[in-house]
């Protein structure tokens, strides 16, 4: 079992989840972060700190973001993300690459943790 980072992280990347992860299994891409499914120990520490509610247990992914588990798996298997240099932003999965710029509204709201639900909704229906 693993946790998964979905679309709300794209173009936010404040790295709050990275600080919480006890096993350093969250890696930085150019526009989003990725949890390595084979390293995640399913501890839940990252989920509550995300200001835009981008982190989900794989069983709780909303239907419109279910493909983000595949994105994470492919990012480490096929894109061949190396296990070292976690903090070095590398290229993204092609699906993330193709996303249009995400809402500035989301980025602006996300700095206020008390408004995280509003930030998470800012581009919920943006094409993915
Ligand atoms: S659930 Fe735990 S181990 Fe998995 S990415 Fe989040 S903090 Fe790291
Ligand atoms: S805390 Fe959320 S928005 Fe911030 S880097 Fe992690 S997944 Fe992305």
From TrEMBL:
Binds 1 [3Fe-4S] cluster. SUPFAM superfamilies: 4Fe-4S ferredoxins (SSF54862). Its cofactor is [4Fe-4S] cluster; [3Fe-4S] cluster. GO terms for molecular function: 3 iron, 4 sulfur cluster binding; 4 iron, 4 sulfur cluster binding; electron transfer activity; metal ion binding. Residues 31-60 form the 4Fe-4S ferredoxin-type domain. Coiled coil: none annotated. It comes from the Bacteria. Keywords: 3Fe-4S, 4Fe-4S, Electron transport, Iron, Iron-sulfur, Metal-binding, Repeat, Transport. NCBIfam families: FdxA_Actino. Ferredoxins are iron-sulfur proteins that transfer electrons in a wide variety of metabolic reactions. This is Ferredoxin. It comes from Streptomyces liliiviolaceus.
